User: What shape does this take?
Amino acid sequence: MKDKGRFGRYGGIYVPETLMPAVEELEKAFNRYKNNKKFKKELDHLLKEYVGRPTPLTFCTSLSKKLGCKIYLKREDLAHTGAHKINNALGQALLAKYIGKTRIIAETGAGQHGVATATAAAKLGMECEIYMGTIDIERQKLNVFRMQLLGAKVNPVNTGGKTLKDAINDALRDWTANVQTTHYLLGSVLGPHPYPEMVAHFQSIIGKETREQILKIENRLPTAIVACVGGGSNAIGIFREFLKDKEVNLIGVEAGGLGIKTGKHAARFADEKLGRLGILHGTMTYILQDKFGQIYNTHSISAGLDYSAIGPEHSNLRDLKRAQYEFATDKETMEAVQLLSQEEGIIPALESAHAIAHTIKLSKKMKKEDIVVINLSGRGDKDMTTIAKELKFK
Ligand SMILES: *Cc1c(COP(=O)(O)O)cnc(C)c1O
Assistant: This one.
């Protein structure tokens, strides 16, 4: 049991006894259906006809010239609901339906995962309740309205810091009490086994498509793949398919916030003082914590990267030196948002713009024929208020 769901020394199942039956049932269901013909066919159909997959791999004509190497974007921003999160939400919701659950619950911070979950629940005809901290509810009103319109109930969480961490605690409590009818739909490659493996599985479609597309266009694999890392699901989603191709550099980009030295960031790897091994929400991984082991409050301009723990598989890929991890600050991110918008006519999500910001730095080491694929995890429409404020638009 102790060794289940490990990525090297990371991951595992650190949950109270009362939650073990739920976690074990889910693991069985996932193993039973992940390669089941009927399940796969139904999910593939949804991904194609509802989400709009495969998403394009777009060559950046102008940005490539400017940065002096070949730049491609994997367009998860064009997936239904505007980000990669729908891939996982539909996969898990369908799995829950197959094992007879009628109710979906989820946590959400900025509301993006809540919206993806409410969307999947609406499409599959399931009841849906979303846990959200009251501070986040105030900050992300529009996403609360979206969830409500999609038929979900939003449960305000008033405990602790009243944000994502506390919402996860309440969702876990609900799951423990209602496991008979309810599936807890976790949003990233985090939490106890089987979640990190299951979410990676549902997101790995991103990398599978990318490989096929780049081979078709360029007839060779990319020099580097760059993705932003919150919990790490869009990054794992595109990395997995290339793990064995040692010539492809895999680069994850964390939120550098106001700078590592300020302590106001969400860079679990870059900050060697605050980012240490620990256990949070059922998994062992790198976590930002103070010297007493209390979870540290993170900061990022992008809500989706604003979490204190990183997915356990990333911790292992870093140990193995199979992936490298960098960071981009809020300021660099804002510059990247403007660059992509103005050079290519694509407004990226603030999360995804971290990957673009790092690519700008990376390009200085690249040759003209080198290929960089950026995972454009989402579109920036949701961030327009933040962007307008930062750029002092009137
Ligand atoms: C939620 C989100 C992320 C961060 O989540 P990961 O699990 O690290 O992928 C990144 N980009 C967008 C657009 C998001 O909505």
Remarks:
- The radius of gyration is 20 Å.
